[in-house]
């Protein structure tokens, strides 16, 4: 996380003569029509502020900018149990004005839930009434969770968040929805995961431009001293230019603190969104027709989604955001669905600018929902918040066997939907493995595999029969797959991931053409984190990108990307169970070591001992099955298969 100083904020607050002056009698803009700008900043501090002072840091950046008379920033603060400065009161909901005269406290009231639509409405209504301008930007600051979970998670009110329908209600009450002539110049999210087609669909009714990130943002977030300074120097700019300034300064700020490798930020021209929404719906309809004709389509779609760039984790250890890059998913399914090209063309037309790190090279600016987790509760959230009727019915069919709206399906000329085949309909759980003459284990399932499985991989275990223990070392998909015949060979090389030679639990997070991404659960100075690791196929190099804390139960994504520092203490985490019993695996703290300036991730040969491998299977509904195990012995770098369970 970028460690920004906030002393300048405290100093500025202490010296301002008008700080305690409540009311708005002489502080609003005198007139509009002169190219004036107003930024309405909904600053829900949450634990980002109470634990790390991130909101205070961004306020400090704002105060570095000298604004002209025709630019106002109206701010509402709240949502945090504590603020890392002496002026903002965590027990209050406070409204502030920053303009050419400095920072002023306008009014305050008892704390209210910033994750509630009424609180948002009251702030927007206040700002619009008292500080109108020719060009208005509304910006959200907080955590984000994507299309289903929304943004602005209020720490004081159980991390309640604003869902997309709540945002729509609040905006519509102030600026009635008008796609032809939206009232606002720009809506921006200095949050995680909110550059989605569903978010864009909501705000096309209110704004010309959307600025948001597909991926989790690092804790440094937007660089307020950068984009506000550009606005101050050129108030004649429009929303497109301001959006580009936000993106460029954000990326420059990330480069300054070395958090740029996985970032994304994009500008979407919402006035050009309608062709994308039409193409997206047609894309979903074609997918629904394909699934109705052959339910094996779901397995093909699942395999395409697994190889598409996705955001916020989507693994067991990190949690599931179920957000995937729309353009990359379309490209991966182009041979299955010809309408995918229309999606790509429309996306390229409305996403007018973006920045991104080297390990987010497939990002096209907007993500969409895909049910990686197979979780029905999350699906139900999408059925409420999602944009596409076709995809709602597609995913409802995939997970429940029934569409969300039978009348909609009938309107597409689709009759009764065929019954889905899942892993529950096979006898593949406990399927035997064979070993070829070279000692390589393989699984034979037959041609049905390509119509049922959305993914296949393996889990690796260390086995200690004497102490009656098994340790799960992690998952990978380094296999040779013959989908036509349903035969899968392991390609295991006898090495595993390690940090400074200490073997770690490794979970594959993204399998790409140019790079793979992995998640490694660790304790970092005693706190649970997931270390983010990349392997670059071109450079043939591993990189540690930083550590994050994934999603919590509310769907809120951690915004902090914690870079490793010399002196940090890392404790490796394993999953442990008995060898003889059928008890569940539990997390186990293993080795502890100290980070140095030479700390690196790499591969290390498995230590001498006994190991087991199980091939894991998953279908599009999230069902899983596991083959029987093959055990092997490592000794001096040589692998010898010892037992195949049949």
TrEMBL record:
Keyword Signal: yes
Keyword list, A-Z: Signal
Keyword Nucleotidyltransferase: no
UniProt superkingdom: Bacteria
Signal peptide (UniProt feature, chain positions): 1-20
Gene3D superfamilies: 3.40.50.11970
InterPro entries: Peptidase_C11
Protein name stated in the entry: Clostripain
């Amino acid at each position: 996380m970028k460690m920004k100083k906030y002393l300048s904020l405290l100093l500025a607050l202490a010296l301002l003569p008008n700080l305690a002056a409540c009311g708005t009698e002489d502080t609003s803009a005198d007139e509009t029509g002169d190219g004036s700008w107003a930024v309405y900043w909904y600053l829900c501090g949450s634990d980002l502020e109470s634990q790390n002072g991130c909101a205070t840091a961004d306020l400090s950046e704002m105060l570095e900018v000298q604004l002209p008379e025709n630019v106002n920033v109206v701010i509402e603060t709240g949502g945090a149990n504590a603020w890392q400065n002496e002026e903002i009161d965590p027990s209050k909901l406070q409204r502030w004005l920053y303009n050419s005269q400095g920072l002023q406290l306008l009014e305050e009231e008892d704390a209210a839930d910033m994750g509630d639509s009424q609180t948002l409405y009251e702030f927007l209504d206040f700002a619009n009434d008292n500080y109108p301008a020719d060009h208005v930007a509304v910006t959200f600051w907080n955590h984000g969770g994507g299309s289903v979970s929304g943004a602005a998670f209020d720490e004081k009110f159980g991390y309640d968040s604003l869902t997309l329908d709540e945002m729509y209600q609040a905006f519509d009450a102030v600026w009635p929805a008008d796609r032809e002539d939206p009232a606002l110049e720009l809506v921006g999210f200095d949050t995680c995961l909110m550059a989605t087609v569903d978010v864009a669909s909501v705000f096309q009714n209110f704004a010309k431009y959307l600025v948001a990130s597909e991926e989790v943002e690092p804790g440094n977030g937007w660089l307020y001293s950068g984009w506000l300074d550009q606005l101050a120097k050129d108030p004649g700019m429009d929303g497109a230019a301001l959006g580009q300034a936000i993106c460029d300064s954000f990326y420059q700020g990330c480069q300054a603190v070395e958090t740029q490798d996985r970032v994304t930020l994009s500008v979407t021209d919402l006035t050009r969104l309608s062709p994308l929404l039409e193409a997206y719906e047609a894309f979903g309809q074609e997918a629904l027709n394909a699934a109705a004709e052959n339910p094996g389509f779901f397995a093909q779609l699942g395999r395409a989604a697994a190889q598409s760039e996705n955001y916020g984790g989507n693994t067991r250890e990190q949690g599931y955001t179920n957000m995937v890059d729309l353009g990359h998913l379309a490209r991966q399914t182009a041979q299955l669905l010809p309408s995918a090209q229309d999606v790509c063309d429309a996306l390229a037309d409305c996403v007018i600018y973006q920045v991104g790190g080297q390990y987010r090279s497939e990002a096209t600016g907007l993500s969409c929902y895909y049910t990686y987790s197979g979780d029905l509760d999350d699906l139900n959230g999408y059925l409420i918040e999602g944009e596409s009727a076709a995809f709602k019915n597609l995913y409802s069919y995939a997970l429940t066997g029934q569409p969300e709206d039978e009348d909609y399906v009938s309107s597409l000329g689709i009759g009764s939907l065929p019954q889905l085949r899942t892993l529950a309909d096979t006898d593949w759980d406990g399927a035997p493995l064979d070993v070829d003459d070279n000692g390589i284990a393989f699984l034979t399932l037959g041609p049905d595999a390509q119509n049922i499985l959305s993914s296949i991989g393996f889990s690796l275990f260390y086995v200690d029969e004497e102490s009656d223990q098994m340790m799960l070392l992690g998952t990978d998909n380094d296999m040779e797959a013959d989908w036509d015949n349903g035969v899968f060979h392991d390609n295991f090389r006898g090495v595993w991931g390690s940090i400074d030679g200490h073997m770690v639990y490794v979970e594959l997070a993204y399998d790409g053409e140019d790079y793979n991404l992995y998640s490694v659960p660790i304790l970092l100075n005693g706190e649970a984190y997931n270390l983010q690791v990349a392997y670059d196929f071109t450079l043939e190099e591993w990189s540690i990108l930083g550590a994050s804390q994934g999603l919590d139960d509310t769907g809120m994504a951690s915004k902090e990307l914690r870079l490793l520092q010399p002196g940090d203490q890392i404790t490796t985490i394993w999953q442990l169970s008995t060898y003889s019993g059928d008890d569940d695996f539990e997390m186990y703290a293993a080795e502890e070591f100290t980070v140095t300036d030479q700390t690196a991730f790499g591969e290390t040969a498995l230590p001498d001992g006994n190991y087991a491998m199980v091939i894991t299977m998953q279908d599009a509904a999230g069902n899983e099955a596991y083959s029987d195990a093959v055990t092997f012995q490592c000794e001096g770098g040589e692998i010898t298969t010892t037992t195949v369970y049949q």
